[in-house]
Each structure stands twice: as C-alpha cells, then as structure tokens.
Amino acid sequence: MHIAIIGAGISGLMTALELAEQGCSVDIFDQQQAGQAASWAGGGILSPMYPWRYAPEVNQLAKYGKSLYQRWNEKLYPITGIDFQIHDTGMLIFDKGDFQVGLEYAEKYHEPMQRCEYLTGDDIQQVNQHISADFEQAIYFPELSNVRNPRLLQSLISYLKQHPSVRFFEYCPIEKLIIKNKKVHGLQAEDGQQYFADQVVLASGAWSQHWVEQIQRNIPVHPVQGQMLLFKTPENWLPTMCMNRVMYLIPRQDGHIVCGSSMSECGFSTAVDQQTQQDILTACLEMIPELEQFPIVKRWAGLRPSSPHGIPYIGAMPEIENLWANFGHFRNGLCMGAGSAQLLRQLILGQETFVNPTAYSPQRLQRLALVTP
Ligand SMILES: Cc1cc2nc3c(=O)[nH]c(=O)nc-3n(C[C@H](O)[C@H](O)[C@H](O)COP(=O)(O)OP(=O)(O)OC[C@H]3O[C@@H](n4cnc5c(N)ncnc54)[C@H](O)[C@@H]3O)c2cc1C
Question: In 21-98, which residue ranges form alpha helices assigned H by DSSP?
C-alpha cells in the first residue's frame, strides 16, 4: 500500500514510522523542513499538564506515550545514534486548588501521571533543593517524564530517511487533494506537481483548516501560539519538572531547562514578544529564584493545533474514500503522538485497535453550511 502523508511533525512522522514498519511505502510532504513546527517548539512533558482538567480521550492516548516512545527509542537508537532521552524527573505542582483533585485523580486512574504524593516544607526541599521557600506545599508525581522532542524528531527523520520504503518531500507545500468521485487519488503541490497514492493522511497540525473548502467540512482547528525560553545550567542541576499556574520548567539531562508557556491567538505568527517572555521568566523565577544566575540561551514560539476540548481527529475523513486525519492535538500532541499514530495505522490497515476509536473520529467534523447569496 502506498501512502502519502501531509505534514512532517510528530503526527505525520510517527504515522509514517508505524506504516513503514508494516510494509507500506510512504511519501511524506512538508511545506518547510521536516520536524520544525509545533512538535519542535513543544516541551515534551509526557502527560497533559493537569490531566484532571482534560477530556478522558486525551488522557487515554497520552498514557501510552512513555512506553511507546521507550520502545521506539530502543529500536531507533542503534540505527540513528540519536537518543531522545526519556528523562524521569517527576513533577512538582504548586497550584493549591489542584492538590485534592490531583491526589484523587492519581488514586483513581494512575495514568498518565501515575503515583501522586502530597509534600510540605522539608519534603519538597528533599525532592528539589532549588524550590523557593515560599512554596511550602506541593503535589508530587515522581514517575512523570519528559522526552527531548527535538531529538525525538531528529531520530524519526534520520530513521525514516534511511528506510527503503520512505521518501521525503521537504519545502513542498501541498495545495490540493486530487479528488475524483469522492475518492482521493493523490496530491497537488503548489508548483503544480502531482503525486499519487492509495491513501492520503492529513497531519497538518495548526494549518489543517486549509482543507475546509475541498472536503466541504468545517475543521475547527486553529493556531494557538505558545512561547518558550531556555536556560542553560550545569548538567542535571534541576532534579524535577515544576509547575505553577500553567507555567512550567522542564529540565533536560545536559542542564538545559525549557520554560513556558504562554497562550495567544495571533494567527500564524511565531514572533516572541518582550512582555510574554517576561511573564514566563517571572513565573519561573518565582519557583526557582536561583535560576537568575544562569543564562537564557534561546527564545521561541510554536503554533499548537487547537481543537474543541483538545481531542484530536484520528481516523477516516467523512465521505471521501482513502482520506485520513491525524490532527488537532492542541497542547498534548507529543504525549499523544505515539498512541495517535498507532491508532491511525491500525485503522488504515484494518487491524484491531488498541483503544476505541469512536471518540476521535473525524466523522464528527460538521458539514459546511451552504452559504446562499
Ligand atoms: C510552546 C509549546 C509547548 C508544548 N508543550 C507540549 C508538551 O509538553 N507536551 C505535549 O504533549 N505537547 C506539547 N505541545 C503541543 C505539541 O507540540 C503539538 O500538539 C504537536 O506538536 C502537534 O504535532 P503535529 O505534528 O500535529 O503538528 P506540527 O508539528 O505543527 O506539524 C505539522 C506540519 O505540517 C506541515 N504542513 C501543514 N500544512 C501543510 C501543507 N499544506 N503542505 C505541506 N506541509 C504542511 C507544517 O509545515 C508542519 O511541519 C506544545 C506546543 C507548544 C507550541
């Protein structure tokens, strides 16, 4: 089976991996360099930030993220030499209003954040001696991890590029789907070049509204900008991830600490601004005042593919044969990425699915209302 995938972020790359490993031949297209959009910009926390605030459908896919990525890392690392570092740091959460609900959630569901403990004073310092003394209470998720997402993408790209049945088409914006008699036959790029395939997957992230007119369905996915900044500290300086008021610090093994994040609707702009950067910095220094002594080495923004309730669209698109969706992962596309791709591969190949696919079905995309002049 020959499959074309539009979008080389985590959703498209993981789908390509799943399908190529099952013997499919895969062409993957991106309008820019592969793996440079939201999936690069994200933080890589392997759980929704406060799972109890999210729909069960989101947590259901997120809970497979860590184990699936671990398996893929074991397989890909010997070939690519790129370790994407699933870093078991645990996380401290300081939002008092979330303590009770967080403890109850962990008790009831265990996944994706697993065990949870309530900590005070000295116990917090034992876990992370850099926390400000102003934070006297926390809930602690000792088993929560983060993945180094830029390396995850590098590893996927490197592996797929050497795969005999995968072809990359970078800097190749796809303008149109070639649809005849309610069946998609392939793609047309902006330069007019056509590419044919048995099946087509839309993995176009925040850009997914592009397909609205052609498929005559409303696609309620739009970009929500998130800004980040990056500290460089000594190796393993910060022992845990930390979160307060939806602002977080994510330590990498080599001492980089990713700090974020903001939420702003400003179209497709990825410009950073001083005020937002200052807000992130203030929130992070409130938790870890000692960070002030270390340099900020990078600032950036990415575009989350927002969707209603953050529940992605995964599965067969309505009414058009051979067209599939894997988009709309909003704030959790990295932790849901491995599970989403596995589910889509199972659906495309007619295999038994590991979760019930109904809640993710693109059949819920509403038909466009006819506009009469
Ligand atoms: C600041 C920030 C922090 C985040 N933190 C986390 C986190 O800690 N954990 C987590 O799970 N998630 C996190 N996320 C969310 C996560 O990054 C996204 O949900 C996820 O990356 C979406 O992946 P994607 O592959 O669908 O989209 P993208 O990575 O954006 O990829 C889509 C690709 O499609 C291409 N494309 C679009 N249209 C076309 C076209 N017509 N032709 C060709 N190519 C096209 C684009 O160029 C792009 O490369 C964060 C996001 C941001 C911005």
Answer: 38-41, 56-62, 65-80
Taking residues 13-40, what's their average pLDDT?
Answer: 98
Q: By residue range, what is the domain housing residue 99?
A: 91-143
For residues 157 and 267, membership in a common domain is answered with no
Instruction: Give me the pLDDT at residue 149, please.
Output: 98
The pLDDT mean for the chain works out to 96
Counting the structural domains of the chain, the total is: 3
Phi, psi for 204 (deg, rounded to 5):
-100, 15
The secondary structure element, H or E, covering residue 117 is strand 117-120
What pLDDT is stored for residue 92 in this prediction?
98
Q: pLDDT value at position 369? A: 72
Together in a domain, 288 and 347: no
Tokens 């190749």 found at: 172
Whether residue 28 lies inside any domain: the answer is yes
> Within this chain, do residues 172 and 238 fall inside the same structural domain, yes or no?
no
Pocket of ligand 1 (CB under 6 A): 6-12, 29-32, 37-39, 41-45, 173-174, 203-207, 210, 226, 228, 260-261, 302, 304-305, 327, 329-335
